[in-house]
Design brief:
The model has no long low-confidence stretch (mean pLDDT 95). Helix 2 runs parallel beside helix 3, helix 3 packs parallel to helix 4 and helix 7 packs parallel to helix 9. The chain contains 15 helices and 15 strands. The protein is an alpha/beta fold. 39% of the residues lie in helices and 22% in strands. Bound molecules: S-adenosylmethionine (SAM) and iron/sulfur cluster (SF4). S-adenosylmethionine binds next to strand 2, strand 4 and strand 5. The site of iron/sulfur cluster has 11 residues, from loops.
């Protein structure tokens, strides 16, 4: 019998106070939202989706919950707690479930953090991005970097077990000295977990337009590789070890179990506008706009836009892409043709340990290329 996959619930909160110039996530500021959808009614709509979801798939213990966005903490903490209560009521939270919310440092207070913690949240991930004002300005971030240590301290005071920080490197105009300042500032907060992403210049964003017009340079691949290595050195020296190419944790318990579920192709229900779900090889995604989402639920329907069942080739490709990025590596059985391992082995990009293919330090910088080597 195949083992039953872990089950998680993702809640997408599609609201932000301002749109950062680099971000193309499915999120809306008050002016972008238009009529027919409101932040005030959002919790009720998500709760209606969770009710329909439990009717569709039945009760199933939830090991992890992740509120992402957008900016979940743009909503009153009471709304997030109410949604979490509905997840527990409809599906049942497993004992020791990991319950995370993303947060913008601008949008929390000691009181809101205490409400979240009291309501069952035990992990929080702050979007720090950088500690350097001129870098934050290019990213259009509005938060004061001096606030980050404060919000981490408030989260600790509120009793959060796990605190994570998100960083971005490779912003135009960021020197290696600037990046070191951000790394040191993040580590001074003693986080349990850090995510560091290279800046992706997305089409259709304000940043994308500025790069296309030549006002800002495209991030440079060699600079990104150097900054990745710089981050890894700083994190390892501070006792945070990588467990996925862009993620480091204090120990195994500090890894994000919810994201590990995605990377290991477990099952999850994604609630909220544009959220994706995956159950036993079938995946679907919700309508993207909050107005369309609200209309579907008001009519008593699940807000599903489209679904697909992955064929075995697509499943394999996804598995290689996601599992190879994990420190535990990719199972050898997932490599369709073992002869394809020779090139990355010769270039020192992977090792084979037991029955797992594991990226070396050099391989972590070139993970996407290794995936292309391994797949037919
Ligand atoms: C939903 S946001 C986190 C919470 C909150 N909205 C905030 O930004 O503070 C998720 C993370 O994705 C990352 N991100 C978004 N767009 C990105 C891009 N174009 N390149 C690199 N990282 C990006 C940022 O690090 C951000 O913290
Ligand atoms: S990075 Fe975060 S705060 Fe900025 S627009 Fe994207 S989701 Fe909103």
């Amino acid at each position: 019998m195949p083992s039953i996959a872990e089950f998680g619930v993702y809640v997408h909160v599609p609201f932000c106070s301002v749109r950062c110039g680099y971000c193309d996530f499915n999120t809306y500021t008050a002016t972008e939202l238009g009529g027919g959808a409101s932040q005030a009614a959002y919790a009720d709509h998500v709760i209606a989706e969770l009710h329909l979801a439990s009717q569709r798939i039945g009760r199933r213990a939830v090991q992890t919950v992740f509120f992402g966005g957008g900016t979940p903490t743009q909503l009153p903490a009471e709304d997030l707690v109410r949604i979490l209560g509905a997840i527990d009521q409809r599906f049942g939270l497993a004992p020791g479930a990991e319950v995370t919310t993303e947060a913008n440092p601008d949008s929390v207070t000691p009181a809101s953090l205490a409400t979240l913690r009291g309501g069952g949240f035990n992990r929080i991930s702050f979007g720090m991005q950088s500690a350097v004002p001129h870098v934050l300005a290019v990213l259009d971030r509005t938060h004061d970097p001096a606030r980050v240590p404060d919000v981490v301290a408030w989260a600790r005071m509120a009793g959060f077990d796990q605190v994570s920080l998100d960083l971005i490197y490779g912003t135009p105009g960021e020197s290696t000295g600037d990046w070191q300042i951000s790394l040191d500032a993040a580590l001074a907060c003693a986080p349990d977990h850090v995510s560091a992403y290279s800046l992706i210049v997305e089409e259709g964003t304000a940043l994308g337009r500025r790069v296309r017009r030549g006002e800002l340079p495209m991030p440079d691949e060699d600079d990104l590789a150097d900054k990745y290595a710089q981050a890894d050195t700083a994190f390892e020296a501070a006792g945070l070890s990588w467990y996925e190419v862009s993620n480091w944790a204090r120990d195994d318990d500090a890894r994000c179990r919810h994201n590990l579920g995605y990377w290991r192709s477990d099952d999850w229900w994604g609630a909220g506008p544009g959220a994706h779900s995956h159950l036993a090889g079938r995946r679907w995604w919700n309508v993207k706009h909050p107005r369309a989402y609200a209309e579907r639920l008001n009519a008593g329907d699940l807000p599903i836009q489209e679904s697909e069942t992955l064929d075995s080739d697509a499943l394999l490709m996804e598995r290689v892409m996601l599992e190879l990025r994990l420190r535990e590596g990719l199972s050898l059985e997932a490599v369709p043709d073992h002869a394809r391992l020779q090139a990355p082995l010769d270039r020192g990009l992977v090792t084979v340990t037991g029955n797992r293919v594991v990226l070396t330090d050099a391989g972590r910088l070139l993970a996407d290329g290794v995936v292309r080597d391994l797949l037919p």
